[in-house]
Here is the input.
Amino acid sequence: MDEKVVNNLKSESRWLRLVFMVGFGIVAYLAAFLVMLLALVQAVHGFCMGEPNERLLKFSGGVNQFIYQIAGFLTYNTEVKPYPFSDWPQSSSCADKASSESDNG
Here is the structure.
């Protein structure tokens, strides 16, 4: 084997990243299930109240951004580890647009 490959296989940081990747992959799977659950709750709330729940919109926006951060980490697009190693992501602008449209319309 090439010496560079052997050195990479012996690298503790690469193995540690792999452990984090597996862990965050499991968390992303659970978070995707949570998104589906939130969608169901929002659909029921929408039928009952006629509008989406604002607090769930903000929370689900944060969960969506969290999944996006995990995907970036898993695909080596970023070295920054997602929450809890960094701050919880802010809600995306989609929820803000929806709330401003409901205020204006």
